[in-house]
Amino acid sequence: MRFEDVLHPTPQGLYSPPGDFWIDPVVPVPRALITHGHADHARAGHGAVLATRQTLDIMALRYGEGFTDTRQEAGAEPVDIGGVTVRFVPAGHVLGSAQIVLDHGGKRFVVSGDYCRHPNPACAPFEPVPCDVFVTEATFALPVFKHPDPAEEIARLMQSLAAFPDRAHLVGAYALGKAQRVIALIREAGWDKPIYIHGALQKLCDYHADQGIALGELRAATSDKTDKKAYAGQIVIAPPSAFNAPWARRFPDPLIGFASGWMQIRNRAKARGVELPLILSDHVDWPDLTRTIEELDPEETWITHGREDALMRWCEMTGRKGRPLRLVGYEDEVPE
User: Which GO terms describe its molecular function (predicted)?
Assistant: First the structure.
């Protein structure tokens, strides 16, 4: 049996012929298995969706209850789909994110979706699953990308607040996963004051709190009537796009921060006018990416969603078999 008989790329996404399902398809399909709730992986309009309960909830929050005709929760026990045994294990990326493990014909496939090996207080940690085929993302698949300790990055934010107590600290963070992780890390650093959030983050922050993620007191930062001085020395979390809108003008001498793995590239930070770049990524960096492949030791590594060439070269140099999938339509809903 060839690996491609069980799983192979199609224009719609990764497809399993025996199970007759797609994983994270880019267009509506009859049956979809979804790794997590980011828009480049979770789209509305599929006939049936199998995902973790939290991913199903997040899709409903983002797309409405009618995002699919039929939804099925992936629980602790494996399910059989056309002779393919399917189970979901944590990916460490965002709340509800999962790797999809397929067993068929004595072979095991792990489709990781997006994943992260750094501790994340806003979601369950990555669970390594040895396999024959590992499908990995390659968002930061260059040796230059080595992400620092998240606690150290948050410490830099705390130091800035102490140094500039008269300035509002606006931190750009994407709505699903990154914003809640930043807030949880700030709480772990000992900040017990209210944290102000943009209205676009409210629903997802409320959901994370309902799921037991310790976010502390959050206040809306959307009222035009609030005195600017009230935000001095405060933390405001917002989608990065909000900083270019009139909304940002309500804050006193705002100090702009941005939490992203891409902040390691100084030109990106400079181009966005970011004064406090925080290198916080929910994806694996180069050391964790290569460590994961070595740990799982798959017969083949299939590479998608990012920079394939460097990782292909690393596979060749270490005597491993790599395969670039070159799937289209897989990019973060915003650049990380």
Answer: RNA endonuclease activity
Per run of 10 residues, the mean pLDDT along the chain (length 336 residues) is 94 96 97 97 97 98 96 95 98 98 97 96 98 97 97 98 96 97 98 96 98 97 70 95 84 93 91 93 98 98 91 97 78 47
Bridge-based pairing state of the strands 300-306 and 321-324: parallel
- Please, where in the chain does CATH 3.40.50 lie? 150-278
Q: Which fold has domain 3-144+283-324?
A: Metallo-beta-lactamase; Chain A (3.60.15)
Full-model pTM: 0.94
Alpha-carbon dihedral sign for residues 73, 214, 63, 94? negative
Provide the pLDDT for residue 169. 96
Q: CATH topology for 150-278? A: Rossmann fold (3.40.50)
Closest residue by Cα to residue 262 from 181, 132, 172: 172
Alpha-carbon distance of 31 to 8, in angstroms, equals 16
- With both helix axes pointing from N to C terminus, report the angle between 286-296 and 308-317 in degrees, rounded to the nearest 10: 50
Q: Which residues have a Cβ under 8 Å from the Cβ of 265 and sit 6 or more positions away?
A: none
Sign of the Cα pseudo-torsion (109, 115, 120, 123, in order): negative
Return d(Cα 187, Cα 191) in angstroms, integer: 5
Residue ranges of the chain that CATH labels 3.60.15.10: 3-144+283-324
pLDDT at 332: 44
